[in-house]
Amino acid sequence: MSDGTTCDPRFGAVREEFERNFAERREVGASVCVTLDGETVIDLWGGTADLATGRAWARDTIGVVWSCTKGATALCAHILVTRGELQLDAPVASYWPEFAHNGKGAITVRMLLAHQAGLPAFSAPIPDDGYCDWELIVNRLAEQAPLWAPGTRHGYHALTYGHLVGELVRRVSGRSLGTFFREEVAEPLDLDLWIGLPQAHEPRVARTIPAPFPEPGDAIPSFYRVAMTEPDSVGAWVLMNSGLVFAPGWIDSRDAHAAELPAFGGIGNARALAGMYRVLALGGAADGVHLVDDGELLEMGALASATSVDATMLVPTRWSLGFAKSVDNSAREPGDRDGVVLSEDAFGHVGMGGSIGFADPAARMSFGYTMNRQGMAVGLDERGQSLIDATYTALGYRRSPRGGSWFLKSR
C-alpha cells in the first residue's frame, strides 16, 4: 500500500480487508474510498496498475469502472428532473420522437430508468466498433422492437442503458452525456471521473485484467452459462452481439477510452466514485453544488423494480430509478450467490468484475471501490463485499444471521 493513504482508526478493519484482498484474494491493483458526514475517512490504494510494465497503482491512477458509469448517467437524468426539464412519467418519445417506432410510444422515462423498457440488447448484428458510433446505436435503439412488453418486467440493460438515457439527456439539454456530466457534475465537484477520456490522461489509466476462463468444475453464473449455450437468449445477444466490447484489450484501447460509453466505459477511481455519491449522501447538495432536490433524492433511492429472475441476469435484482439496491443472493445455487449487500437506504451501481460506488443518505456515507483484475461474479465478489461489510460494521450496523441487508442495531 502506498504512502499518503488515509484511514481513520475507526475503520481499521477496512484497511485489513483491503490488505487481505491482495494477500488472499488475488487483488492486483485497487483503490477504496469512504466519506462520512462529508469527510474522507478512508482513501487507500495499492498494487500494480499495469502488469506488462510493472507500473504501480498511484494516488492518481484511474481505470475503467464498467457499469459504475451507469450511476453517473442516471444522475444526469435526475438533475434534469430536478430542474423541471425532464418528467419521469412522460413518454420517452415526447423528447425523442423517433423512439416511438415498433410499439415503444408508451415507454416512459421511469420505465427506461428502471430497466423495464425491453431493450437490453440488439437482435440485429452491430459492427465491431458499433458502440463508439453514437448515432448508429441510438438509431438502432429507436428502430428496435422491445424484447418484452415494456413495464411488465425488468432485465438489466447492460450495454444499451447509457445510450438510451444519454440520448434523453442530449435531446433535453443539447449536450452529449459526457459533456453534461463533466460540466454539471465532475468539474464543479473536482471529480477525476470521465465519460470520454481526454488524451492527456491516458498515461494514468490502469490496464484491465479480464476474469480468468472458468476451470472444469468451477461454478459459472447462470447469465454466462445460458449466454454460452443458448444463442437466442437475451444474455447471448448481450455478450455475442456487442461488437468488440468484450474482446480482450478493446476496453483499454484509445478509441474506447475516448468514446462516450455511458453504460460501461467511464474511467475513474474509488475517490471519484465516493466523491460523486458524497453529494447524494449529504442530501443532494454540498460545497455550493446543488445536484438534486429532496424529492428527487427519494426517487433515486426508492425501490422501483424487483424480481426473482432478472430477464437478462437470471438472478434476483432490485432497482431504483437507475441505481442498484441491496440484494442478498447468498442462498442461490453456486455461481449465482454474489449479490450486492448494502443497507436498504443505500443506492449505487456495481461494475462488471466487481467495482462499486454508492451513497447511503441515512448513514451520510459514500463508498467507492475500483480494481483492475476482474472477477467472474455478476454482482460483487468477496473483495468488494468484504470492504463494504467492514465499513458498515464500523458504523454500528449489523446483519441478521439469516442474511439480508445491513441495518442499524437500534432498529
CATH topology label: Beta-lactamase
Principal-axes shape call: globular
Helix-strand topology string: EHEEEEHHHHHHHHEHEEHEEEEEHEE
The average pLDDT is 96
SS class: alpha+beta
**Approximately how much beta-strand content do the residues carry?**
15-25%
**Measured distance between first and last alpha carbons:** 37 Å
Radius of gyration: 20 Å
Q: Tally of extended strands? A: 15
Say what oligomer this is. Answer: single chain
Low-confidence stretches: none
Could you give a short account of the major beta sheet? 7 strands, antiparallel
Q: What's the gist of this structure?
A:
This protein is α+β, with helices and mostly antiparallel strands. The protein has helices at 12-24, 68-82, 109-113, 134-143, 161-173, 177-189, 222-229, 234-240, 254-258, 270-281, 294-301, 382-394; strands spanning 6-7, 29-36, 39-50, 55-56, 63-66, 266-268, 285-286, 289-290, 305-307, 317-319, 347-351, 355-360, 365-371, 397-400, 403-408.
